[in-house]
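Quick note —
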Amino acid sequence: MTLIRDIVAPPGAMDRRPHLSPRPAATYGRTAALGRAARLDTLLDNPYDPANEHGFAAFLAADQERRPARSAERLLADAGLAAEFVPARQGGTLARADLLMKVLRPVFRRDVALGFAGGVTSLFAASAVWAAGTGAQQQTLAHLLLGGARTTVVHPGLAPAGGVRREEVTARRTAKDTALLVSGRKDVIIDAARADLYVVHARTADTGPRTHSVLLLDPAQLPGATLQRLPRVATDGMRGAVFSGLQFTRCPVSDDALVGRPGDGAALALRMNQVNRCLVAGAATAALDPVLRAAVHTATDGRTGPPARRWHRPLAGVFTDLLVCDALATVCLRAVGLLPDRAHAPTVAATYTVPVLLTDALEELSAVLGTHGGGSDVVHGILAKLVRDLPAAGLGRDGAAACQAVILPQLSALARQSWLVEQEPPAELFRARGDPPPLDHGALAFAGGGDFLAAALTAAAERLGRFRRAGGRIALLAELAEGFLTELHLLREQCALLPGQFGDALSGPAACALSDRYGLLAAAGAVLALWEGQEGDDPFLADPGWVVLALSRLGRRLGIELPDLPGNCVTGVLDELLRRHHSGRSFDLDVVDLAL
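Predicted structure written out below.
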């Protein structure tokens, strides 16, 4: 199959791409993952049916009553969703992070809280064990998860939404102790009351870079008086999830409970968060599906043709932004398997850039729907619930601040060592039918790597430069790509002046603005590279029109001087949105039929 990338740059023309040897088809590949996603969608059934106990009405009722959607949780458990969080080598179906995102989307399309309560929390906890646990720890955890058990993670001083809290768990050993003594409390832990296993990030040293260690604790094996489950805590967001606390009082645990080496906790958390948070951000793009669908219905109500002209740009723009979010999350989650030592910076950038685009999209859709949710109490309830749930899922300001604190110290090194000089990543990374290697949690690196999306942006802009005078949308796309490349040059100059460590220069609005701009450039690189990787079987995605609209919207956020946008770019995207809406198909890059 001929790629757009090869048409734009024939073999040998500015081709600096590394080439990979062919790999055998993955046992747990794209087709199988899409099949499992379709099965979940069918089992959950039509979410708009008020009689469906797994539909929007049921989730809104559970949210109002501040309780889990137990029927839907049981359905997911019976369907074997837990196997998605267990690596294939341990008997599960987890092979690639981008495919896991696709499997989770039918769940997040209905309810973000269900996504967490239905299993994502167990994945957050398990990832450290998959990365650094012993064979026995991995086997134990896999056996429990596949058998229907739950696990949760006790983060070091962080609330679920990323806010810093004072409560802390410590693990100390005195000279006379033969075991570590775990003490302390955390008041807000998702699923603490229902979990069968705890992954605890405990403080084991007072100073230095290795202050925390990870412990795998089975409450059934702990002395009863040393562990107390605290009462449930009411939260504003994700009210359908169960938050409560744990208190440890000199709880003895053996060294066998250590996951990895003592002091590995912070490094493990940073390495695993790049996958976990990006995965949630990518899955959450599906949560906007019912709101966008309702906005289209509202804008076209009573009309036989397209919506009124005033709604063309908001509707087409939000649809395009969802495709941008999908592109960025998809590419980054593929990269954690193919480029585990170079994926950290772009993937962390995705975790705060995607939520910004989603939040702004909700605001645009609110204008279309009006203050009463387009006349539908259900739609209004879904919209209000999303506004509460996204920050609680780490997709709000606190979560963004935590990610930016991680990315800012890396910008100086990226500017000096990577941007505009790094080799372009393999083309396989951007092909829908590509078969990148499975995710190896243990191979993931923290910082010190390169920036494959900046390299992809640079190479794509150079190739498209040949079409600046060709006319039409391809010439417009070339002009937009050049504008983003110019912005990357400017960002490189500014970030090269930053110190390569934490300090006053790496805090405040000016520093955050640099990280914001970096995230938008990463998004542009993902969109261009995925468009070039199209194999021509989807005429809409192969056409440059949606990419022109996507880059123009990203460029407006960056303050780039933009060329005039032809009207057919907007109408072409709007036509595709209407086709998918009327045929009950998804708004993702992978177009699938939905149970509507």
